[in-house]
Design brief:
single chain; alpha+beta; nine-stranded antiparallel sheet; 22 helices; elongated; P-loop_NTPase; DUF8128; T4SS_component
Length: about 575
């Protein structure tokens, strides 16, 4: 038997009427299948459960595997906002030790054609609240309270006996008020389809089943029917427990119609104030009509043009869906709290791009993603991998962010570095600091073989500064140094450059960073990686190199990738090779 855990939003406005229609739909299914009505089978069984385990209350239904799709459709037809979780066995809620549970049957106390009290007779009270209240009362985390109802559509035998009783009353010479009331009750019960029902109560951890009977006393109908507890004897207890475990018919069979079943078992509305019900937290919506999905008719070209990222499951319609390449050009921003799968999502997208032969860059501030991705790189792409790990002291990766390939990149480089330092030090940022730093950076990019640590040198060493200025023809830069900077008093100059020296010096003195940024020539050109569809894996584990160092290197690399991408403006659009950048938080 397969099972469905049903979760609905807490603020729902559902009533018992949805459950009434749901159970009635099960009758229509069995009517279609019953071409040999005299053969009885557990395939006709449905299991309705309310389970309180580990101080959480679950609503679960079950049926045989061939009926599960029909059951799903019936549930979603009535509870459109329901979240269904399919389970292959009941043990997914945790191990239930059937050796130590107490079990009892709940049976009708009178003739089966007499009704219990139904929702029609209740005014502003939902009777299921008394059951749920009893379930949530135990403070013991190991407590178990399980209401199990096994149902299957009944034949017409009960209707014949009910009709015979009505005829007997009608033919009686003396009709008391009680007899007339009984006749009316029977006629009301005959209005709905009947189900053979086995009702069990399973408990553990000092829960008195007799106290549970009090919760079901609310269904007692004066002049009609009520429930009574029946305990198995020593010989039958094992069989009853096996029937409970396997969700099978066994023991005394009751006759309840759809209205009576919907009164005893229905999903709770938002008016029920029970704290530990497993409510649904997701609002499910239908997928857009133009969502790229994988079907049997999807061509190989369409598959190559789509990055498949997940599965949509709405009202029993399951499809693998993805993002088209043209849509990815608009970028993807992934938001979610810790542990929801953001990093795994990034990993899977990057791995699929690698398998399709695309160029990929992954910047990982933790290091785990890089290790995971490397395990999935195909053999034919191993030589395409460029692995950057600044914590590896045995291998150098020179990276000069001031290096430019053409004149058009110089202003982009300066703007990018300013943005990096502003991101790192925006709390202590000021217009004077930015003005001086911008002119320093322009001076360095307009001369040859300069690196980021040279910011300190050009501010401190006047002779070096003059040597650099000899390579530059820009009059604006000369005016800044000769007219503005040199005219500062020593005290004012120290105050002006100290914030810059403090910020740049922090990285220039770090052995890890200095080893990378002190070389005038970068070992690898980002533009070549992008144009040749290479795999650029960057391990910026903060636990190995520190948070500040990881932030600086990550920002520098992103800036270089951005500059290389913007430099493609000089290429025709059809000549631009796609390259995908993944940046984890």
């Amino acid at each position: 038997m397969n099972f469905l855990l049903i979760k609905i939003p807490r603020n729902n406005e559902y009533t018992y009427e949805q459950c009434l229609a749901l159970i009635s739909g099960l009758v229509s299914k069995e009517n279609k299948k019953s071409f040999i009505p005299f053969i009885k089978s557990s395939k006709n069984n449905y299991s309705l459960n309310i389970l309180s385990i580990k101080q959480m209350i679950y609503f679960v239904v079950g049926t045989e595997k061939e009926n599960i799709t029909h059951l799903k459709n019936q549930i979603l037809a009535q509870y459109s906002k329901a979240d269904l979780v399919e389970m292959e066995n009941f043990g997914e809620f945790g191990d239930i030790d059937y050796e130590v549970v107490d079990v009892a049957e709940l049976n009708l106390s009178s003739k089966k054609y007499l009704p219990i009290k139904t929702m029609v007779s209740f005014q502003d009270v939902d009777p299921i609240s008394s059951i749920l209240s009893g379930m949530s009362r135990s403070p013991d985390p190991a407590a178990l309270f399980w209401l199990q109802i096994i149902i299957s559509p009944a034949g017409k035998g009960w209707q014949k006996s009910a009709a015979a009783r009505i005829n007997s009353i009608n033919n009686s010479e003396i009709k008391s008020q009680g007899m007339q009331t009984e006749s009316s009750m029977i006629q009301e019960k005959l209005k709905y389809h009947g189900f053979k029902s086995n009702i069990r109560i399973i408990t553990k951890s000092n829960i008195d089943t007799k106290s549970i009977l009090n919760a079901f006393s609310i269904f007692s109908e004066p002049g009609g029917n009520s429930f009574k507890l029946k305990y198995p004897n020593f010989l039958t207890k094992r069989k009853l427990i096996n029937a409970v475990k396997n969700h099978e018919n066994y023991g005394t069979t009751n006759l309840l119609n759809t209205l009576e079943l919907a009164t005893i078992w229905h999903l709770p509305s938002g008016t029920i104030n029970i704290p530990n019900i497993k409510w649904g937290k997701r609002l499910q919506l239908d997928a857009p009509e133009d969502l790229p999905i994988a079907t049997e008719n999807t061509t190989d070209e369409e598959k190559r043009d789509t990055t498949y990222i997940g599965k949509v499951d709405f009202k029993n319609n399951k499809h693998i869906f993805g993002i088209k390449s043209k849509d990815r050009l608009r970028h993807v921003y992934i938001v979610g709290k810790t542990g929801t799968g953001k990093s795994s999502f990034i990993d899977n997208m990057a791995i699929e791009d690698i398998r399709k032969g695309h160029g990929v860059a992954v910047l990982d501030p933790h290091g785990d993603a890089i290790t995971h991705i490397m395990d999935y790189i195909p053999k034919n792409r191993i030589n395409d991998v460029c692995y950057f790990n600044p914590a590896d002291t045995e291998y150098e990766y020179p990276l000069n962010i001031l290096e430019v390939e053409n004149e058009n990149q110089k202003e982009l480089v300066v703007s990018g570095i300013i943005a990096i330092f502003y991101k790192l030090y925006h709390d202590s940022w000021g217009p004077r600091l930015e003005h001086i730093l911008r002119n320093v950076l322009f001076t360095l990019v307009y001369s040859e073989n300069q690196t980021l640590p040279d910011i300190v040198k050009i501010l401190h060493d006047k002779k070096y500064r003059q040597k650099v200025l000899e390579q530059i023809d820009d009059p604006q830069i000369h005016q800044f140094w000769n007219k503005e900077f040199d005219s500062m008093t020593e005290k004012f100059m120290n105050e002006a450059i100290s914030p810059i020296l403090n910020k740049v010096g922090q990285f220039a003195t770090s052995p890890i960073i200095r080893r990378i940024i002190s070389h005038p020539k970068s070992k690898v050109k980002i533009s070549e990686l992008m144009d040749n569809k290479k795999i650029f894996l960057v391990d910026l584990s903060q636990g190995k190199i520190g948070e500040d160092n990881a932030t600086l290197l990550g920002s520098m690399l992103i800036t270089q990738i951005q500059i290389a991408a913007m430099n493609r403006a000089f290429q025709n659009e059809e000549d631009r090779v796609p390259f995908y950048l993944y940046v984890d938080e």
